[in-house]
Amino acid sequence: MTVIVRDFRPRDAESFSRVRRLALPFMLSTPQSVAYDVTHAHPDAHVRPLVAEEDGEVIGTAQTGIAYDSPQPGQGYLNVYVHPERRGRGAGSLLVRTAEERLAEVSATKLFAWVLDEPANRDFAERLGYRASRSAHFLRLDLANGSLPPRRPTPADVELRTAADFADDPRPLFELDAQTLLDEPSDIAHEFTDYEAWLKETWHHPLLSHELTSVAVVDGRPAAFSAARTDGGTRYGTVMTGTARAHRGRGLAKLAKNDSLHRARAAGFTEAFTGNDSGNEPMLAINKWFGYEICATEVHHVRQLG
What we know:
Blueprint: E1 3-7, H1 13-23, H2 31-39, E2 50-54, E3 57-66, E4 75-82, H3 91-105, E5 110-116, H4 119-127, E6 131-142, E7 158-162, H5 171-181, H6 195-203, E8 214-218, E9 221-230, E10 235-243, H7 252-266, E11 271-277, H8 281-290, E12 293-304
């Protein structure tokens, strides 16, 4: 049986998402979101997903691209996932080498890859020349059987809204998202400066739930938020929770996230997922307060090209 690697085709969206869910069940993915990410990627990102195929079956995937919104040029990424029952056939190595060749063609000089913190995965990355960097945790909360902290009174000068309330003009949310992103721990610095790109990649993304994204508003302006995604079933995830610098220390992020979690449970969602850099102790403490538990850890690996 021969494994081949080829470019992603639109009809691969369902199998691409399926392999991703099996290999990384803590990250929300649907065929629609996979297709959307490919179709609406910024041209400077050079997004070019790959699939590994064996006898007509997709057994592995690779997300590849350039961090175009980083002030430092040449930073590429490749995240490779192989079907858990199809490992050991060479699909992972072939995906990595093919992705590296493609990224070198678009002037990538440094490559980053997330690797599950398991001995076999880390050994695989190290054999291919990648060295470990920072780590991050996936966290899970049982919404069906667990208990949430009770809602607390909203401060007199704070109003809780949802992202849906900003449908006519989401720019204030873009500005808040851009500000909080600057303080997000990461090996790659990102800057949101392109409003139109943010609308495509974030605001209109099919997984984003405007109704479950909670926003704490002070003096008519968003001061804190918790952005929610859903998979069309019973799984819910928060992908960013943050507070404007001028309003930190008041517990507004916790207020917004608690509001979103309560509404998610009331809407029938049974599992909540989120992720945190392992060094982000304040956010890890907040999530522990909600009842989240670490369910897996990833380690960022880096390789210099050339």
